[in-house]
Amino acid sequence: MTDQLKEFLNGKTEYTLSLFRFFIDELNTFGMFEVKATKTMIALQSTVQFAYVTQLGKNFIHIVLPFNQPFDNQLCFSKIANVPGTNQFNHHLRIYNAEDFNDEVMYFLKLAYEGNYHA
């Protein structure tokens, strides 16, 4: 674990840290990827940066998945926002417990991981 990642995770609740570890373990089933922390978020990268953990709350993790089209009519995303001037649509999801990593969420995580932005 890098110093930047340690700093980003410092002071978070044990519940949130265990949820973050569970998330990383679930992603490990897809294959290899890197975890890179910045001052404001944690970026996950395989062949492309495929997910961003933008917030670690007291009892949740907030994840953003970038796609080049909006996946409307999905129950897992709390918000879908077009990045101005681009064809990137950020899909926001908030995870409160391990059960939130259901089939739908795992499908979109894998889609992002593989860099395949069309369902």
Report on the architecture of this protein.
- The structure is a single chain.
- Strands 1-2-3-4-6-5 form a six-stranded antiparallel sheet.
- The termini are far apart.
- The chain is built from three helices and six strands; from the N terminus they run ααββββββα.
- With 119 residues, it is of the alpha+beta class.
- The model has no long low-confidence stretch (mean pLDDT 91).
Structural class: alpha+beta
Which spans have pLDDT < 50 for at least 5 consecutive residues?
none
The coarse overall form would be globular
- Portion in strands: 25-35%
Distance between the termini: 33 Å
Radius of gyration of CA atoms, rounded to a whole number: 14 Å
Number of helices: 3
Oligomer state equals: single chain
Main beta sheet: strand number and arrangement? 6 strands, antiparallel
Which features characterize this protein?
119 residues; alpha+beta; 6-stranded antiparallel β-sheet; 3 helices; 6 strands; 28% helix; 29% strand; globular
Question: Could you give a short description of this structure?
Answer:
The chain is α+β, with helices and mostly antiparallel strands and 119 residues long. It is built from 3 helices and 6 strands, in the order ααββββββα.
Write the layout of secondary structure elements.
Layout lengths: L2 H7 L4 H15 L5 E4 L4 E4 L3 E8 L4 E7 L11 E4 L6 E7 L7 H11 L6
Antiparallel strand pairs: 1-2, 2-3, 3-4, 4-6, 5-6
